[in-house]
Amino acid sequence: MGCAGSRDKVDETSKKIRKPKAWKHSEAITRAQLTQMREEFWDTAPHYGGRKEIWDALRAAAEADLSLAQAIVDSAGVIVQNPDLTICYDERGAKYELPKYVLSEPTNLIRES
């Protein structure tokens, strides 16, 4: 009886992560603008609540390839609700929401030459 609840939690925390679906920004942006948006988000993210070490782990996962990101999320004890990392929780139940722009590039990114 109690084991069934434990098993659900293990299944929930071990959810495989994947890249977010393709998305489009409201207007075409440059890589520099995207980088600035990401930096602003990560600088302010701990003020949204939750623990700084979880935010740090989520940033590392967002900036890593999928296999390393999976290892980071698993070792930090992050509970992944959406496989694309847009909604996660820590072991204490704090919610962490990541915008798609920190996880992938928009389809209308302006390529600078």
From TrEMBL:
Region feature (Disordered): 1-22
Composition skew (Basic and acidic residues), residue ranges: 1-15
InterPro entries: DC-UbP/UBTD2_N, DC-UbP/UBTD2_N_sf, UBTD1/2
Domain DC-UbP/UBTD2 N-terminal: 14-112
Top-level taxon in the UniProt lineage: Eukaryota
Classification via PANTHER family: UBIQUITIN DOMAIN CONTAINING 1 PROTEIN-RELATED
Stated name of the protein: DC-UbP/UBTD2 N-terminal domain-containing protein
Organism: Rehmannia glutinosa
